[in-house]
Design brief:
Helix content is 43%, strand content 11%. It has helices spanning 13-16, 37-46, 82-86, 100-120, 131-134, 140-145, 147-161, 167-170, 178-186, 201-216, and strands at 4-5, 25-30, 55-57, 62-64, 87-92, 127-129. Residues 29, 130, 138 line the site of zinc ion (ZN).
């Protein structure tokens, strides 16, 4: 997964990421403005506010601002808060206006989160929202559009990474079988469902019978 690094200089660690950290979960945010990921990170690094986050993600790229082994100030739960001290923070961009750009940013964020879950051996339960730590309605647009919906997107990305075929993939024949499968569908030998299912004797017999009646006699 390609990540664009723009890490905060060590001289600013005392403001932006003073504590070492071993992340224990992911915290999802929406930026509530319309800046790109590069601009979000550049702005975060340039100011002297105790506000920071590990990654910003827009419709095109993932930009990292804080190393994963440092904490960041994003969860609003104080110096010793779980969110601020254990959470790997991800800002999804373009949430103010929403629309296609935001939807694409959310998709890329879901892919990245799935990648992180797999890398760390974590399950979906390791995905938290900012709201869980201080009650703030964030990630606002992701929540508006449905939190469970977002978790489902991450889940399907994670399944893909784990090599488990999704339902859609299960319904498509393998490339080497495609020509024969299309032929058998056209000739009425198979109804075209469940290409990867195992076949029983009665199903095989029925397919042979259909072949005999419709093709062999041609
Ligand atoms: Zn937030």
């Amino acid at each position: 997964m390609k990540i664009v690094p723009n890490l905060v200089p060590v001289s600013k660690y005392s403001i932006k990421c003073p504590y070492s950290m071993t992340p224990e979960f992911i915290v999802v945010h929406n930026t509530a403005n319309d800046a790109s990921a590069r601009n979000e990170v550049a702005y975060m690094i340039s100011n002297s506010n105790k506000v920071s986050f590990h990654y910003a993600i827009d419709d095109k790229e993932i930009v990292q601002g804080i190393p994963e082994n440092r904490n960041a100030w994003h969860a609003g739960d104080g110096v010793n808060g779980q969110g601020n001290r254990k959470g790997l923070s991800i800002e999804i961009c373009f949430s103010k206006s929403g629309g296609k750009r935001f939807e694409e940013a959310e998709k890329l964020a879901a892919k990245f989160i799935a990648f992180k879950l797999k890398e760390k051996g974590w399950g979906i339960d390791k995905i938290k929202k900012h709201q869980d730590f201080n009650g703030k309605y964030c990630p606002h647009r992701t929540l508006d559009m449905g939190w469970q919906r977002f978790l489902d997107i991450v889940k399907s990305e994670l399944d893909k990474l784990k090599g488990g075929a999704t339902m859609a993939e299960k319904n498509v024949p393998s490339s080497w079988a495609k020509e024969a499968w299309e032929w058998a569908k056209k000739e009425g030998i198979t109804d075209g469902t469940n290409p990867k299912g195992a076949v029983t004797r009665e199903q095989l017999t029925t397919m042979l019978y259909r072949y005999h009646k419709q093709v062999a006699k041609k």
